[in-house]
Amino acid sequence: MTAPRPPRTPVRAPDHSAAAPLPVPTSPDHEVVALYGPDFAADPYSVYDRLREYGPLAPVEIAPGIGAMLVTDYRAALELLHDPETWSKDSRAWQATVPPDSPVLPMMGWRPNALVNDGEAHRRYRQVITESFSLIAPHELREHTRQVAEELISRFSSRGEADLMAEYASKVPVLVFNRLFGLPDSYSDRLVTALCGMLDATTPEEAVAANEAFSAYIGELIEAKREKRGADLASWFMDHPAGLSPDELASEIVVTMAAGHNPTTHLIGNALARMLSDDRYYSTLSSGGLTPRDALHDVLRNDSPMSNLSPHFPTRDIFFHGTWLRAGQLVLVSYAAASTQHGRTAPGESAAAGGSGGGAHLAWAAGPHACPVQNPALLIATTAIERLTAWLSDIQLTVPHDELVWRHGPFHRGLVELPAGFTPITPDQAGVTPWSSPSSSTPRDATSTARRSASASWGPRPG
Ligand code: HEM
């Protein structure tokens, strides 16, 4: 892919009828940068560097033939996210210009939920989510996550190796959601099939099958809760004074699970990838230094799990930070580019030595549509990482960090696999803590030097 040069004049949105698909606004000598495919996935940050040459906004393609303007500048992004008068989230008019089977519609198509509505409708939908989550006590959420985490760890702990994406990071949020929404663990496999299937689908057929599995699960969840309410999110959504219609209820449950699963999976995965390839975190596992919380902040700032989203549509023609935009045109915010505008700390680099990875970021977005579930998401991720590193105290990657493979696609920054090795431990008896299990033979005070020499001998182990 050749680097685009910055345009000499501001990019001007072409004048087309509102019903026609919006072409990507670019001049003939400029290549449109694709935010999908292997090149972008392998090194999105150098793509953002090139896009910044256009100024605060740049033309991109998010799927073949689907153009958008991408905000890469932090101040422009903040201004947009805090100005609901000028910027609408309602995607209906734009959606009418896009093929109905477009792969971006599941993320951006209109539904009666918090994500794609404005004003009073948005406030009503959002309140259902924030007020229901506020009824979950943090210690209960931590305990659910601990149980789920330890159950997952026990499935691979005796093997000495695991793919931490497929076997851990992608499953923790699903199993926790299944409990929070009020279904017994016996249902969790179905939700795993549906949500992980949507994440992993490589063909339209697989995506359709995963979607159908998800709809069937949601249908059964609603049916079960209609018959018998409980102290759970589904029941609280149903009984909320907003009085959601059946369609709205289903859509709100779907958006909460779907908006939560992918980024939480990648928050855990990206943080583990950083921790397990950085000696400063390894010493933490036994003796202090950087903590899982530091790794999470590092990821939020430098490897935002949701990299580009926030579809917005100008409510009128505007000149915004040097670019003419037409009313109704698709504009996305690059949380990843805006957060790393003034530099990025790559895994293992020293900015994190200060503790937090430093600096403001937009990983949760900002303004009225900012993620409403930040603290619960952080608690789930922190607990998941703490349990894994407590049980498998010498865990480390079996491939170097720079050989990890990243998922394709414009919206998320996440790993395909996270292969790790560790000293096998025998699954525990009920009630036995990790400290009294055979894992206590694992050297807990291993030094960075010891770890480095150990890493030379790590390789795939027999199952
Ligand atoms: C328990 C896990 C989570 C749940 C249930 C959840 C739920 C939601 C919901 C319902 C929204 C829509 C809010 C609105 O439009 O008013 C949202 C937005 C958002 N969330 Fe979360 N979220 C979770 C975790 C995360 C994580 C881990 C990240 C990334 C670090 C994240 C980043 C975002 C962003 C960037 C938005 C704005 C998206 C947009 O407007 O396009 N979320 N989240």
Automatic annotation (TrEMBL):
Membrane-spanning intervals of the chain: none
Coiled coil spans: none
InterPro entries linked to this entry: Cyt_P450_B, Cyt_P450_sf
Bias-annotated ranges (Low complexity): 433-457
Signal peptide residue numbers: none
Region of interest (Disordered), ranges: 1-27, 427-463
Entry-linked Gene3D superfamilies: Cytochrome P450
Lineage: superkingdom: Bacteria
PANTHER family: CYTOCHROME P450 YJIB-RELATED, P450, PUTATIVE (EUROFUNG)-RELATED
Protein family per UniProt: Belongs to the cytochrome P450 family.
Name of protein: Cytochrome P450
